[in-house]
Design goal:
It contains two helices and eight strands.
C-alpha cells in the first residue's frame, strides 16, 4: 500500500474543508451608527459640564455682588453713626445746634477742637441721597462727595426724648437711620426690585451731647 504525502498548498488554493470568513471586528472599525452614539454621549456629557461650570460662575458672581453690597451698606452706616454720635459737642459753650430737622438731609454739627466755631474740617457734616445716581453723599462744606454707590435709599427719622418722631429741631434727641444698598448688576432670575437684590441696615443713634 502506498502512502500519499500531503503537499504544501500553493498560493490561492484553499485547504480542503476550510471556511473563508470575513474580516475581524478589530479590522473593520466602527459603524456609522456606533460613531453617532458615541458623539451623542460625548455631547450630553459636554453640555452637562458646561452647564455646571456656568452655574458655578453665576453663583460666584452673585456672592461677590452680595458681599460688596453688604460691605457698602456697612461702611456707609458706620461713618454716619460715627458722625451722628458727636452731634452737639460744644466744649466752649457756644450753643451748638447738633442736629437740624430736614426731611431730605442729615446735618450734624460738633465743635471737635473746642475753639468756639464750626469752621474747621468735619465740624459741620451733611449727608444726603442722590436718587438719580444712587449715591449717598457726604459734604463738609466743599460739595457733596460720594460716600457710597449703589445706595437705593437713605432715610433719617428725628426722634424726641420719648422716642417719637418730631419735626422740631430743639426737640431732637435721637436719630433712626436706614441705609438700603443694592447689587451693582441685575439678576435676571430675581423677580423683585427690577432684578436688583437689596440689603437694608437700620440703627438708632442717641448722641451723648443732646441731653437725653
Amino acid at each position: 500500500m502506498t502512502l500519499r504525502t500531503s503537499e504544501p498548498l500553493r498560493p490561492g488554493v484553499r485547504k480542503p474543508g476550510s471556511v473563508t470568513s470575513g474580516p475581524e471586528r478589530g479590522d473593520r472599525g466602527f459603524t456609522l451608527i456606533e460613531l453617532l452614539v458615541v458623539l451623542s454621549i460625548q455631547g450630553i456629557l459636554l453640555a452637562a459640564v458646561v452647564t455646571s461650570f456656568t452655574g458655578q460662575l453665576t453663583a460666584h458672581s452673585l456672592q461677590e455682588q452680595l458681599g460688596a453690597m453688604q460691605q457698602n451698606a456697612r461702611a456707609a452706616m458706620t461713618l454716619v453713626i460715627r458722625d451722628a454720635r458727636t452731634a452737639g459737642y460744644d466744649p466752649a459753650g457756644m450753643g451748638v445746634t447738633g442736629l437740624v430737622y430736614d426731611p431730605d438731609r442729615l446735618t450734624i454739627a460738633a465743635d471737635h477742637n473746642g475753639d468756639g466755631d464750626l469752621s474747621d474740617s468735619n465740624e459741620r457734616v451733611v449727608y444726603f441721597h442722590d436718587p438719580d445716581r444712587l449715591i449717598l453723599r457726604r459734604s463738609t462744606g466743599g460739595g457733596g462727595q460720594p460716600l457710597a454707590e449703589d445706595v437705593q435709599g437713605f432715610t433719617v427719622e428725628f426722634l424726641d426724648a420719648a422716642g417719637k418722631a418730631t419735626t422740631t429741631t430743639t426737640d431732637i434727641r435721637q436719630l433712626r437711620i436706614s441705609v438700603t444698598a443694592r447689587t451693582g448688576k441685575r439678576d435676571p432670575h430675581y423677580p423683585r426690585n427690577g432684578g436688583y437684590r437689596t440689603h437694608t441696615l437700620r440703627s438708632v443713634v442717641t448722641p451723648a451731647n443732646l441731653g437725653l
